[in-house]
UniProtKB/TrEMBL annotation:
Matches recorded under InterPro entries: Tnp_DDE_dom
Superkingdom to which the source organism belongs: Bacteria
Transposase DDE domain span: 283-403
Annotated Pfam families: DDE_Tnp_1_6
Name of the featured protein: Transposase DDE domain-containing protein
Organism listed in the record: Candidatus Scalindua rubra
């Protein structure tokens, strides 16, 4: 971070305008099915047990349904029915290992055993059998929890599917300066997270790191993954203007301009109070004024009431977000939903704003450079910490090359020791 600030000062680069993007970092590990995950998790534990406690290992392997330590070990099974039967047996084997060693003073502290316990808990559940019957093990339809283990070799790696991509690895976030008058742009922040991390969830952390490193921007540009009503408001509270299209909405002009497009809160005439602590709905899309509005103390939502008779006879009632009840018609909104909807309307209706946001497209070239020229697409390591270090070194290398090119083409504004 200090190096980036020195580079920016030497090259006269402004950091007041930045753009942010994300990309997937592929792990070197094989993407495992549930069959492969169960099999490999048990094998890794037994290998560790054989190394540490050979006597215990010899005793327990005789009780398992198969030889998990065999040399001809295969993590795939093409026969679906056979695979399902084997998954059931392997789940029983995991439960046997769990019961056998959960109270062992040493084995229960092995990382491989902790991984086995977590995999079993995420993928299976136990059901008490009827009187006289043994415990039944049920395979869950979907794994339980958020941090689902995808491989016993790297418990930080997460499986995610986006389009035709399947990834077992991590997600990288990269930010760079993007002021049009800058002759050279520099990377300002990089981070590695689990591959399941949403862009909008990581954005506050990005802004916090930029502020701590004295590189906080006045404007930040992102795609729809980063921009929603919540992040717009949070950024504004942090004195950062977050620009870009709002998430969760189609960016098709044909859909937006269609006569049967569903209406949203941004189609209503709304005034923002001067203190910016609330909204006042003036009228609906057909210029009908509400009878009253109030804020729900439990949810924080604003409840706006309209006359039922008028709403029931309205030609737009099928498209309108107002819910028509027996005694009252109600529009429910809050500042967050209005911020997201109004941003969507602004992006779709204002060509000048779309042109302004087009500067974000340069982030694609930034990601391409760091993954193609500096090898950040594929992780060379198992853990998240080392993968993060790899991305940091890639970003430093990228900035150093840009700094050298700037000196060759333009010279430097000031001399520094770097």
């Amino acid at each position: 971070q200090e190096l980036t600030v020195k580079f920016a000062d030497a090259c006269g680069t402004s950091l007041k305008k930045q753009r942010t993007d994300s990309f997937f970092i592929h792990g070197w590990l094989q993407i495992l099915s549930r069959y492969g995950l169960f099999k490999e998790t048990i094998r890794v534990f037994l290998q560790n047990l054989r190394k540490q406690k050979p006597g215990l290992c010899e005793d327990i392997v005789e009780e398992l349904s198969r030889d998990y330590l065999a040399n001809d070990f295969d993590l795939t099974e093409k026969d679906r029915e056979k695979a399902q039967r084997q998954i059931k047996l392997m789940a029983e084997d995991m439960h046997l290992l769990y019961k056998t060693f959960i109270n062992h003073n040493q084995v229960k502290h092995y990382e491989s055993f902790k991984t086995l316990v977590n995999v079993f808990d995420q993928q299976c559940e136990t059901v008490e059998g009827a009187e006289g019957e043994k415990l039944e093990i049920i395979i869950r339809d979907k794994p339980k929890g958020e941090e689902i283990i995808s491989t016993p070799h790297n418990t930080d790696a997460r499986y995610v599917k986006k389009g035709k991509q399947t990834i077992c690895g991590h997600k990288g976030f990269v930010s760079e300066s993007c002021e049009e008058t800058n002759k050279t742009q520099f990377l300002t922040d990089v981070e590695v997270t689990p591959s399941t991390t949403a862009d909008a969830k990581e954005l506050p952390n990005i802004q916090e790191r930029l502020e701590e490193s004295d590189m906080k921007p006045d404007e930040q540009y992102g795609d729809a993954g980063f921009v929603n009503g919540q992040t717009i408001q949070d950024s504004q509270a942090n004195e950062i203007l977050l620009e870009g299209p709002s998430s969760g909405r189609s960016q098709s002009f044909e859909v937006f301009n269609a006569e049967d497009r569903p209406l949203d809160v941004a189609d209503f005439k709304i005034e923002i109070e001067e203190n910016k602590k609330g909204l006042t709905v003036i009228s609906c899309p057909t210029n009908q004024a509400p009878t009253d509005q109030s804020r729900n103390s439990m949810t924080g939502n604003i409840l706006v009431h309209f006359i039922v008779a008028i709403c029931s006879a309205c030609q737009l009632k099928e498209r309108c977000p107002v819910k028509i009840g027996t005694n009252v018609a109600t529009l429910t909104l809050d500042e967050r939903s209005y911020a997201g909807a109004s941003r969507h309307h602004k992006y779709m209706e204002d060509p000048g704003y779309r042109k302004k946001c087009a500067i974000r497209a340069g982030a694609e070239a930034m990601v391409s450079e760091i993954v193609r020229c500096h090898g950040a697409r594929k992780s060379r390591h198992r853990g998240e910490v080392r993968t993060r270090l790899q991305l940091i070194f890639s970003a430093i290398a990228c900035n150093v090359k840009r700094y050298i090119r700037h000196g060759e083409e333009y010279g430097y504004v000031m001399a520094i020791n770097a």
